[in-house]
TrEMBL record:
<feature type="transmembrane region" description="Helical">
    <location>
        <begin position="351"/>
        <end position="370"/>
    </location>
</feature>
<keyword id="KW-1133">Transmembrane helix</keyword>
<dbReference type="Pfam" id="PF13641">
    <property type="entry name" value="Glyco_tranf_2_3"/>
</dbReference>
<feature type="compositionally biased region" description="Basic and acidic residues">
    <location>
        <begin position="140"/>
        <end position="162"/>
    </location>
</feature>
<keyword id="KW-0808">Transferase</keyword>
<keyword id="KW-0472">Membrane</keyword>
<keyword id="KW-0812">Transmembrane</keyword>
<feature type="transmembrane region" description="Helical">
    <location>
        <begin position="377"/>
        <end position="394"/>
    </location>
</feature>
<protein>
    <submittedName>
        <fullName>Glycosyltransferase</fullName>
        <ecNumber>2.4.-.-</ecNumber>
    </submittedName>
</protein>
<feature type="region of interest" description="Disordered">
    <location>
        <begin position="139"/>
        <end position="162"/>
    </location>
</feature>
<feature type="transmembrane region" description="Helical">
    <location>
        <begin position="321"/>
        <end position="345"/>
    </location>
</feature>
<feature type="transmembrane region" description="Helical">
    <location>
        <begin position="6"/>
        <end position="26"/>
    </location>
</feature>
<keyword id="KW-0328">Glycosyltransferase</keyword>
<dbReference type="GO" id="GO:0016757">
    <property type="term" value="F:glycosyltransferase activity"/>
</dbReference>
């Protein structure tokens, strides 16, 4: 057999292994079970714990009108408060947040600013740190006052039995994430019913333009391939990941894992957070969201390119060898099948054509569930090699930018030597 035949056979073997041996990453059925009308599903907790919603925000005035009202409108039976941390915005993010809270009402909102990040901190995690500190003191005081002055049906007594030192849970959510009214309730219900320390949902990203249709579903597909959700959710498994747009974190687990101090330099902070919690003995869960959506638009290729390339090389720990291995792996797995089909047709080699077509068919078939989840045409499935080529180029560009000293750039800040998930 020729070298191309061997490579095509290797690509087909790789796809067989990926489909059966990589945690069934291509399936989209790992989702939070919801309580049905007949009462089926996770039971409600005896007492609803307190929750602080921490929203780090930097220059987010364009998306806040579509996201913040959904948090204000959360139908949550227990004590909850929103802390929007304005991370040095220049577009009036904090002022707009206050105006939206006044207009819509709902959960109490505190807007504050942490100042410039401390040495060794990313801006987002510095804001999260500030929000967590505010939440711990504010809700502890509010809960104590409620217990002294109100009859709340036993919620204050339940809180006192747990701990009088602060908030029970933190919902870390990005400023572009919109939640359905029962989102917080369902997250807490799942955590309480299953003894979970971290519950994370990968928000359904916006898919409206041609470039978003081509690239966004594949972003989630590749993430699931790298961090299969079923592996993440194994209590004794080593794989850990979270989706930073929606993370419910038990405060005790955060303290045990030293969050956020232990991950303060991490650009890929969601994965670093999940690893820290799991390593410290916490139980984590990650799945796809049905009622949590990102409203941030990426209408042009350049915006999607920057979104991926700003942290792609960090994911590879800034290692040239890992970059070479990743490029070679992407080429063999995603680019060889269509190349083998083309070569088989042009050279009239049926065996080569069959190997390439079989690998391409398995690849496209594995992508169909994600396209259905995103309600996209299935004709995008055979185009996955093109999308993979774009991701390959984005990863190489990320490495080039790193070696030029540009590092991970986001909203006016550049981290020349960012940290991957520890």
């Amino acid at each position: 057999m020729s070298a191309l035949m061997w490579i095509a056979a290797g690509s087909l073997a790789a796809w067989l292994w990926l489909l059966l041996g990589q945690g069934f990453f291509w399936r989209t059925d790992v989702r939070l079970p919801r309580r049905g009308p007949d009462g089926s599903g996770p039971p409600e907790p005896a007492g609803w714990p307190s929750v602080a919603v921490v929203v780090p925000a930097r220059d987010e005035s364009a998306v806040l009108p579509a996201s913040l009202p959904s948090l204000l409108a959360q139908d949550y039976p227990g004590p909850a408060e929103i802390f929007l941390i304005d991370d040095g915005s220049s577009d009036g993010t904090g002022k707009l947040a206050r105006e939206l809270a006044e207009e819509y009402g709902g959960l109490p909102l505190t807007v504050d600013s942490p100042g410039e990040p401390g040495p060794g901190w990313t801006g987002k995690l510095w804001a999260v740190r500030h929000g967590m500190a505010l939440a711990t003191t504010r809700i502890a005081a509010d809960r104590k006052d409620d217990g002294n002055h109100e009859d709340d049906g036993g919620r204050a007594d339940e809180a006192d039995r747990k701990d009088d030192g602060g908030v029970d849970y933190l919902l870390l959510t990005d400023a572009d994430i919109a939640h359905e009214p029962d989102s917080l309730r369902e997250l807490v219900r799942a955590a309480e019913a299953n003894g979970l320390d971290l519950v994370s949902q990968m928000a359904r990203l916006r898919v409206a333009t041609c470039w978003e249709r081509l690239i966004v579903p594949a972003f989630v597909y590749f993430f699931a391939q790298l961090y299969p959700f079923r592996w993440v959710n194994r209590p004794r498994g080593r794989t850990a990941a979270a989706a930073g747009g929606c993370v419910l974190l038990r405060r005790e687990a955060a303290e045990r894992a030293g969050i956020p101090e232990t991950i303060r330099q991490s650009v890929i902070d969601d994965v670093a957070l999940a690893r820290a919690v799991k390593r410290s003995g916490g139980r984590i869960w990650l799945g796809l969201a049905d009622r949590v959506d990102s409203v941030r638009p990426y209408p042009r290729l350049g915006e999607l390119w920057r979104m991926v390339s700003r942290s792609a090389y960090t994911q590879l720990r800034d290692q040239p060898l890992l970059l070479l291995m990743t490029v070679a792996g992407l080429a063999v797995v995603y680019l060889v099948p269509p190349a083998a089909v083309g070569a088989g047709v042009l050279t009239e080699r049926p065996a080569l054509l069959a190997l390439g077509a079989a690998a391409w068919a398995l690849m496209a078939g594995s992508y169909i569930p994600m396209l259905r989840y995103y309600r996209q045409t299935l004709w995008l499935a055979p185009l996955l090699p093109l999308t993979a080529l774009l991701y390959l180029l984005m990863t190489v560009d990320s490495a080039v930018r790193h070696h030029l000293g540009q590092g991970a750039a986001w909203k006016g800040r550049t981290y020349a030597h960012p940290s991957a998930a520890p």
